[in-house]
Amino acid sequence: MKSEIDATLDPKTIAQTIDHTLLKPEATRADIERLLQEALHYSFYAVCIHPTWVPLAVSTLKKSPVKVATVIGFPHGATFPEVKAYETYQAVQQGADEVDMVINIGALKSGDLDLVRRELDTVIEAAKPRALVKIIIETALLTDEEKRLVTELSVEAGADFVKTSTGFAGGGATLKDVRLLKDMVGDRAKVKASGGIRDLSTALRMLDAGAARLGTSSGVAIMKELLL
């Protein structure tokens, strides 16, 4: 693998694109503690965990540059905008640096754009200016027209990132979707590719397609492959 990669590829640069992720519902405190130590060891950009683990992550990572990201309305997005806003507020109050919010997919597909706009506005208001906001649009469940629509709504509302997937909806990031989202946001926001990124080759292709951040539970495997 190393021979196929640009010789100037810097492991630190790759590590700084990775949100080291553990969102399994059965994850224990020991699992999260292991994730945090891995993030410190490899200098990943952030960890991405459920809100209940934010205080532990903040405490463990407070003397490091590793950011704490958490998820809102995860994984289905089908709750009230006010609930998502309160969840965001609580996470930020506990020290989260970034929030990844799942849109109400059913509302989008039903054409209820007022609800989608309301949840975007309330979550972004609850997060800013203390935390970045990534909007998870769940590309596997959307048409290209819907992807373009929700991406534009997200950027207009002030989102920092549009994110492809939760990884819990039967599909993850694809190169086609990353390129589509990147074409839509341009320089107005960034793209996070998430779901199904399990090796270095896939990670590099996603970055080449326009992703600025990678959400993956395989960060350690990717770094070990890179460092071979």
From TrEMBL:
This is Deoxyribose-phosphate aldolase. One of its GO terms (molecular function) is deoxyribose-phosphate aldolase activity. The active site is at D100, K163, K192. It is found in: Cytoplasm. Pathway: Carbohydrate degradation; 2-deoxy-D-ribose 1-phosphate degradation; D-glyceraldehyde 3-phosphate and acetaldehyde from 2-deoxy-alpha-D-ribose 1-phosphate: step 2/2. GO terms for biological process: 2-deoxyribose 1-phosphate catabolic process; carbohydrate catabolic process; deoxyribonucleotide catabolic process. Belongs to the DeoC/FbaB aldolase family. DeoC type 1 subfamily. It catalyses: 2-deoxy-D-ribose 5-phosphate = D-glyceraldehyde 3-phosphate + acetaldehyde. The gene is deoC. Catalyzes a reversible aldol reaction between acetaldehyde and D-glyceraldehyde 3-phosphate to generate 2-deoxy-D-ribose 5-phosphate. Its main location: cytoplasm. Its EC number is 4.1.2.4. InterPro entries: Aldolase_TIM, DeoC, DeoC/FbaB/LacD_aldolase, DeoC_typeI. Keywords: Cytoplasm, Lyase, Schiff base. GO terms for cellular component: cytoplasm. Pfam families: DeoC.
